[in-house]
Amino acid sequence: MNGAESLVETLTDQGVEVCFANPGTSEMHFLAALDNPRIKPVLCLFEGVCTGAADGWYRMKDKPTVTLLHLGPGLANGLANIHNARRASSGMVNVVGEHSAAHLRYDPPLKSDIDGLARPLSHWVRRADSAATIAWDAAAAVAAASEHPGKIATLILPGDTSWQDAGDRPIIPPPAKPSRGAPDAARIAHVAKVLRAGEPAMIILANKATRGTALALAGKVAAATGARLGSQFFTARIERGAGRTPLERIPYSVAPALAFLKDIKHLITVETSEPVAFFSYPDQPSLLKNPEALVHPLVEADEDSALAFEMLLDALGAAGTAPLVQQRIETTAPSGALNPLSIAHALACAIPENAIVVDESLTTGRETMGHTLGARPHDMINNMGGSIGYSPPVATGAALACPDRRTFCMVGDGSAMYTIQALWTQAREGLPITTIVFANNSYAILKAEYANMGAGKSTGSGPGPQALSMIDIDNPRIDWQAMAKSMGVPAVAVETAEDFTQAMINSTRESGPVLIEVKL
């Protein structure tokens, strides 16, 4: 057994099921080792698709998978979605190929500082020194990625480590279930006292607290105390819809967020921090809260939210309280022009039960969450890191993790062009994904931010022709149907709310991927 074979066998022993790969010459022995029935290799045509798909896999499975990236440039191509994964507390193991040690001394063209590239966005970095010890390196990488919150682990794999004899592979037990810290009892008692006082309070949930037992228990706390339940504008994954505890979404823009939170006297944070504006704007605050509001951490990022809410309910004497539950709201299929409101109503009408919705719709979809609270139960995934082009890859990984569920990927046309190669992988794997491209032929978000920033204020006008040319993408106009079909994905275009609703419903009857171009 060579080092690459030892590495793959150990990864599978540690519970890794999938490898999202974009291999090169240095990784050919790893590629040969992937001819193994215990692991599924998935080819991605761009490294940012590999890393984004690994993020999506983790968000639905709560367990890390592995990417295979080619040397420093391959890692660099994947860093944007590694950034997004890190901000979402997603665990992943990135195996990055490297030249053999003997070859590096000659400074070959693809030599780079892979360790230096990896460290800023990785929690754990190791260079495999020998084939004999690579099994231990692999196990350590998976263990690091499996911690709570999830971590980014990067294992650098020199070519000679891959092809040399590894000897007898050690038997390494699989990683234990990630341990989660117990919240401090004094902190629980303090928050209970705050809630008993009855002043306006909002509990802001994030990460693992926005689903499962923790979310239901938070619904009990809200029912018992009158506290509101909220989430940041972007959340890694929320279980929402009819039958689930509803969360209010803090608005994205500064002025609406401040208005939304103006009466809140106490912000209680769960696996997150106080709300912060996504960007800094002239003459506007960075913190989104009433200046007199107090912030009370309830659960830190590495702690157990479900346990914290159980302790809080005991402290409140409210363990038997029935939780807040969202009722089903039947939304009438919209008609007429496509706009943010009719699009939101169309989604509320068409989302099938148990769907996964990956949202990167930016300007077009900002009203979506408020109008889909009472839709059929579904999971919503947002972009935590803000690096665009996350949603097609994340949808790919989510659909591979949950092939029995329909995944809806909502993306603006500007964002989609960053990682449109994901469509090819979706077609190759026959994944049940409906990609909805909102085609306004511009970076509409940047037009809004141009005004928000006060750019061009000295001239008293909007962007001039040269500035405007940097945020319009209609010359030439992208042919989304041709783009999709070229990668094996059937596509339709819609221009009315009726057609959009019907196209989504039709897509749920398909077994594989579909693209819907929403012409705005």
Automatic annotation (TrEMBL):
Reply yes or no: does the keyword Cell inner membrane apply: no
Phylogenetic lineage: Bacteria, Pseudomonadati, Pseudomonadota, Alphaproteobacteria, Sphingomonadales
Tell me which family the UniProt entry assigns to this protein: Belongs to the TPP enzyme family.
Keywords, A to Z, come to: Thiamine pyrophosphate
What CDD domains does its record include?
TPP_BFDC, TPP_PYR_POX_like
Q: Does the keyword Cell membrane apply?
A: no
Q: Which residues form the Thiamine pyrophosphate enzyme N-terminal TPP-binding domain?
A: 1-105
Domain named Thiamine pyrophosphate enzyme TPP-binding: residues: 376-518
Q: What residues form the membrane-spanning segments?
A: none
Q: What is this protein called?
A: Acetolactate synthase large subunit
Question: From which organism does this entry originate?
Answer: Novosphingobium anseongense
Highest taxon of the lineage = Bacteria
